[in-house]
Input
Amino acid sequence: MLFILAENLLLRNHDLIFSVKNNVFPNKISVIMLDDLDITVLKKLQENGRMKRNELAEIVGLSVPSLSERLNKLEDRGVIQGYYAKLNRQIFHYDIMAFVLVVMESSKSYEKFAEQVRKTGEILECHSILGEGSHILKVVVKETKDLEALLSKIQSWHGVTKTVTSYVLSTIKETTSLNIQFKKE
Output
């Protein structure tokens, strides 16, 4: 069983409890409890998001209707945000991956920057960071000339004063799976 402190209160010690921002009321925190079965289901889905419900139900010891109800609750509460296919980028000739550190002159340009990022298909991820720079981007392109063009485009955005690019030679680990674990007392 897991427990987490939420809002400085120790809640049930038999469940994993965490808070998520409520999209309807951004300042309101919703508390979500997960039991051992939820954690097992989530781990299995992270291993194989296409696992058939009857197979998953058998693994976790539930009936298919009970599992379906549990999955629907996890989806409705935003614990499961979607199911995705991971594509092999090389098949589509996206042979170049890079990380681009972006330095902004001030936070005044943040909204325009975020809008530009959302519109740029070559940017897979954008993170606001502390330390060197203000944002880091994960980008993929087909050729070196495409990377050069993308960097020129980013450098022309209002508020961007500098970029530093790191070209990925090889990837040792790449996953979207969270390391959710039971905390033993």
